[in-house]
Amino acid sequence: MSDLLTSRDSILAAMRRRITKVEVEGLGTVCIRSLSGAQRARLADLFKTAGGEQTQEDSQREIQARIVSRVVVDENGVRLFGDTEDELAIVADMDAKVLDDLTFAGMKASGLKTDGVADAVKNSAPSPIELPLTG
User: Fold this and answer.
1) Hey, what domains does the chain have and what are their CATH numbers?
2) Are the CB atoms for 35 and 71 separated by under 8 Å?
3) Which residue, 65, 78, 99, 133, could crosslink 92 as a Cys pair with Cβ 3.0–4.6 Å?
4) Whose CA is closest to 130, among 35, 59, 31, 79?
5) What pLDDT digit, counting tens, does each position of 37-83 carry?
């Protein structure tokens, strides 16, 4: 019976999302919390449906804003940005390099591929961010 409890305890411990500190040029040290599985799935759904009436650039900006708004937290794990349109607009309008750096950090912390972000940053034409799992 103790093996079952140990396994259950290990799984429950893994439910706590990790908070890491990253250095971001222009900001200094920022706390990044990994996405939950549910948040990651919602972002993947957004990625699949992005583009409808939006331009590719708007879709990319929205995805990045949603990632950053969910992963940037204070030292206690409290989100600094909400999900309202006003909050997402604030995040989307931040310096592009800072937005990219925070997006990369959030994706890395959450086990997401960052290839699509790197391509979007270095190419002049915007392209959507890839959200599949690494590995």
Assistant:
1) 2-122 (3.30.2220.20)
2) yes
3) 65
4) 59
5) 888 888 878 767 655 555 566 678 888 999 999 999 999 999 999 99
Question: Which pair of tokens denotes residue 86?
Answer: 């006003």
Reduce the secondary structure of the chain to three states and give it as a string: CHHHHHHHHHHHHHCCCCEEEEEECCCEEEEEECCCHHHHHHHHHHHHHCCCCCCHHHHHHHHHHHHHHHHEECCCCCECCCCCHHHHHHHHCCCHHHHHHHHHHHHHHCCECCHHHHHHHHCCCCCCCCCCECC
Model pTM score? 0.72
